[in-house]
Write a structure and sequence with these properties.
66 residues; 3-stranded antiparallel beta sheet
Length: 66
């Protein structure tokens, strides 16, 4: 059986922490910032740790090699 390949789109969008959690960029920051409050824009900076159920899907299907 051949090796499982990591999805190339997933390796650009997700990272794994040392404990195996999945880190992704914040959603909702591409356009339309003028209608958002300053608090919303500020809170959407940086990255976000995905919930356990979503992280399990990403690790199993898209990042088999970590």
């Amino acid at each position: 059986m051949p090796k499982m390949k990591t999805k190339s789109g997933a390796k650009k969008r997700f990272r794994l922490t040392g404990t195996g959690k999945v880190i992704a960029g914040q959603a909702g920051k591409r356009h339309g910032m003028i209608k958002r409050t300053n608090k919303t824009i500020r809170n959407q900076r940086g990255t976000n740790i995905l919930c356990e159920s979503d992280g399990r899907i990403i690790r199993k299907s898209f990042l088999p090699n970590g």
